[in-house]
Structure formats: C-alpha cells, structure tokens
Amino acid sequence: MKRIIFTGKGGVGKTTILSNLARMVAKDGYRVLVIDCDPSMNLAMSLGIPLSGIVSLADDKTRLQEQLGTNLEEHAHEDSDQCDHHIDEFIMNADDGVKLIVMGTIPYGGAGCLCSHISLVKLLVAYLSTGPEEYDFILIDSQAGVEIFGRGLVAEFDACFVITEPTPKSLEVAKHGMKLSRDLGVKRQIVVINKAECDGDITTSLKELDGNADQVVSLRFYRDIQEADRKGAGLQDHAPESAALNELLGIKSCLLEV
Ligand SMILES: Nc1ncnc2c1ncn2[C@@H]1O[C@H](COP(=O)(O)OP(=O)(O)O)[C@@H](O)[C@H]1O
Ligand SMILES: [Mg+2]
Questions:
Q1: Residue 4: which region, alpha, beta or left (left: phi > 0; alpha: psi -120 to 50)?
Q2: What is the CATH number of the domain that holds 205?
Q3: Can you give the residue range of the structural domain that contains 234?
Q4: Is any atom of ligand 1 closer than 6 Å to the C-beta of 16?
Q5: What DSSP string describes 176-226?
Q6: Domain total for the chain?
Q7: 129-175, pLDDT tens digit by residue?
C-alpha cells in the first residue's frame, strides 16, 4: 500500500489534481482511499459527494480513537475476512470506486486547533498500514501550507506530491514543504508545476526548484478545469475530451511508479 501526501500553497490545485488522479487510478482497478485532511473539506465535492451526507472522523472522535487504539495490536494479526471494521461508517463511495474519508472541520469559532483531528488520521493510517492490505493507494489531501508536516502525520510515507504554481511565492512554499517532507523520511518528492501558461513558466520554475525534487512534471492552465469546477462537476464528466486529461495521464504514471 502506497501512502502519498498532496501539499502546496492555497489554491494551487491540490484537490483538483488529487481527485482526478484518484479517479483515474481507481478506474484502472486499483483500490484507492482518499482522506481529506483539509478543514475546508472540498475533496468530497470534487468527487461528486454532497457535503450534507458526510460523517467525518471528527464527528465521533473519542469513540473512534478508543476503537482504533485498542485494536491496533489485534489488527496486525487479522486476515482480511476477520477484519472488524470500526471505520466503515466513515467511508463514502465516490465516483469510479474511489473511497473517501473526511477528517472534519472546526465545529465552532474558538474551538481550538486541528491537532487532535490530525492525530486521529495518523492513528487511522497506522491502523490501515498494520492489518491486511485493503488499499493499493492512500492519497491524503492537505490544507494549504506546511502545517501538516509539523504534526508528523506523513512520517515514512512513500511520496509527497508538491503542487505549485509557477510563481515565486508558491515555489517557496513548495521548497519548504519538500524540506519538511524529507525531514520526516518521505521517500520521494514529486513536484507538479500547475497552471503553467507558457514554456517559460516551466523553465523558470525548474530553475527556482534547483534540483530539490526527485521528479518534476507539469500541468498547463486549462479553462476546462475551471469550468468543471464552476459547474461542480468532475473534469472527466464535464470535458471527457479535454487535453488536460492527457497531461493528467502523465502525472498518473508518476503516481503508479511510486
Ligand atoms: N491546471 C489548471 N488550470 C486551470 N485552473 C486550475 C488548474 N488546476 C486547478 N485549477 C483551479 O484552481 C482553483 C484552485 O484549485 P484547488 O484544487 O481547489 O486548489 P487547492 O486544493 O490547492 O486549494 C480551482 O478553481 C481550480 O479549478
Ligand atoms: Mg484543496
């Protein structure tokens, strides 16, 4: 099972790229679980699931923490048909067979930080990594910036997809993210230069990245992507012939090689 984090500055395209790749890989027959760790909870909508029906991990934090914590040791020795699933009620079925879990949000103003929410996701990933392998990929969507690394959630993950726009600010966040990701022993740093409008955008970004990444790929700016977003539809449903999907196929290959 490959565990992969998607990170980057706000608005760079993390959720867009993750949701498209998840659907493509699931269509190929891989078992894909995506976890939305952004308290803005956009990923469900990108996967065609209305927010109204969502039960997030944070909705039943204490009970889930007790169940996963108590059963971690037992789970390590279970085989797949013995698995007693405390997490099934939190799993939603998205398009193309993608499974979605939503971490949850801040319930009211002044409720405090997300530490305990993120700890719960960490426990969940440990639980899923311990027992019989149920997924080929776990893809985690994160909130903007580098907070997720401070919480150590992604320690020893298989890869970090760092999404960046071809702008100095976004590239700075990307480089910082890669450093923190390496600190945590994440094995591979893959940068996606997104919304590139010309070859120059890519050349300048490559120069700025200065060999920091293990692999760099790009995705051009596409109006189709924005229009799909405006309509609340997946790109593959809104514009199945879009050239953006060809480029995304190239990025999918990077994911499969992880
Ligand atoms: N390659 C692209 N071309 C055009 N617009 C894009 C592209 N990638 C993402 N977008 C748009 O950028 C906005 C932010 O994308 P989103 O995936 O929500 O970012 P993030 O999850 O990083 O905050 C959305 O309106 C989305 O449609
Ligand atoms: Mg997002």
A1: beta
A2: 3.40.50.300
A3: 2-257
A4: yes
A5: HHHHHHHHTT-S-EEEEEEEE-SHHHHHHHHHHHTT-SSEEEEEE--HHHH
A6: 1
A7: 988 899 999 999 999 988 889 889 999 999 999 999 999 999 999 99
* Ligand 2 centroid, distance to 161 Cα (angstroms): 13
What does the alpha-carbon distance between residue 66 and residue 231 come to, in Å, rounded to a whole number?
40
Ligand 1 contact, 12 CB (< 6 A): yes
Distance 142 CA to ligand 2 centre (A): 7
Among 225, 227, 238, which residue has the most ligand 1 atoms within 8 Å of its CB, making it the best to mutate?
225
- Whether ligand 1 lies within 6 angstroms of the CB of 147 is answered as no
Residue holding tokens 């990245």? 209
- pLDDT tens for 194-228 read 999 999 999 999 999 999 899 999 999 999 999 99
Q: What is the mean pLDDT of residues 229-233?
A: 93
pLDDT of residue 64: 81
Look at residue 132 in the predicted model and tell me its pLDDT.
Answer: 87
Residues with CB under 5 A from ligand 2 (ion): 14-15, 42
Q: Which ligand is nearest to the CA of 40?
A: 2
